[in-house]
Amino acid sequence: MIFILKRYYSDPWLRNLDTKILSQHQEDDRHLVVLEETIFYPTGGGQPHDLGSVNGVSLIDVFEKDGVVFHALEHPLQGDDASCVLDWPRRLDHMQQHSGQHLLSAVFHDDYGYRTESFHLGEEYCSIDISTPSLSNEDQIAVETKVNTVVFSNLPLLTYTLSPGERGKVPLRKIPNLDADLRIVEIQGLDYSPCSGTHVSSTSQIGLVKIIKSEKYKGMTRVYFLCGDRALRDYGRKQEVCHNLGSLLSVPEEALHERMALELERKQELEKKILELTNELMDLRAQSIVAQGASPFYLESPNATIEEARQLAHSVLNLATGTVIIRLGERLVLAHNQADTLHLGQLIKEKA
């Protein structure tokens, strides 16, 4: 049996490691390497795998099978030594999101009794599905406020292993149906959860936690959130949008909502007025067309839209019986209100 020292558990802040290569082999289009010890976390527990390099060769995947951590590389390694370099920004991001999720789920559970049914850690956002069909805006704000209060309280995050007989020692938020040792991640005195992921050392390292939206999902509520650097980047983008809109409309940011509501009301009023004037114009144009000749009425209107052409044809046929053909460049709009059979091909040929 191969024993691999998983340094991502014993020291999740370790960024570089020199170790030995135990084995390597080709599998499909990937080269798989097993190391004596590793800093690279494999996909699992809702958390994506780490990235980085081994001897300068980029990692494309890390996965665990039967307790062995496999490192998928772009091509084989030379020699027996391995120099590992972790993609640290990615690791820190994953730790912030995952620890933030534990804290968010704990507050939903403790304060409202909502269970977290699933967790998604994506490249752009994170989400949890909680066991409630709806979530009010007031409750969402209250949860976010409490979560960030805990963040600023700088509570330690602890990891340890419990045997099946020791599970009763701590109030686990969720008890898995496994008769094996459990790795526990504890937010000191607040939350106790089985988890195989990597985590920060204290709640303050999670950084800002921001719920960005929630929506109904399969009888539950899906809550989208950002933590740490992701939340700061999102705040920066939104700040830039507010600043640019405020400059464009010459109002302070706190007045943007009121001003945008006013602009929308003005836009709707203008659209209504434009529609009224367009209808009047169509009626006047239809009267002019009918006064100038008899059916079939043939018009060239290359700049009109299909809807405008249909409206004009309808206005003409409200005043006369016959056929209307409107050419819009390469397209034709045809309308008629005659009971007789219409020979379209012959009619178009005559007007071509």
Q: Which tags fit this structure?
A:
four-stranded antiparallel beta sheet, Threonyl-tRNA Synthetase, Chain A, domain 2, 3 domains, 18 strands, 7 helices, six-stranded antiparallel beta barrel, alpha+beta
Task: Give a quick summary of the entry.
The protein has 352 residues and is an alpha+beta fold.
Question: What this model shows, in words?
Answer:
This protein has 352 residues and is an alpha+beta fold. The protein folds into 3 domains: 5-86, Elongation Factor Tu (Ef-tu), domain 3, CATH 2.40.30; 92-233, Threonyl-trna Synthetase, Chain A, domain 2 (Threonyl-tRNA Synthetase, Chain A, domain 2, 2-Layer Sandwich), CATH 3.30.980; 279-351, no CATH class. It contains 7 helices and 18 strands. It has a 6-stranded antiparallel β-barrel. A hairpin with a 2-residue loop joins strand 5 (52-54) and strand 6. The longest helix is centred in the C-terminal third of the chain and has 37 residues, at 256-292. The chain is elongated, with a radius of gyration of 33 Å. The protein starts with a strand and ends with a helix.
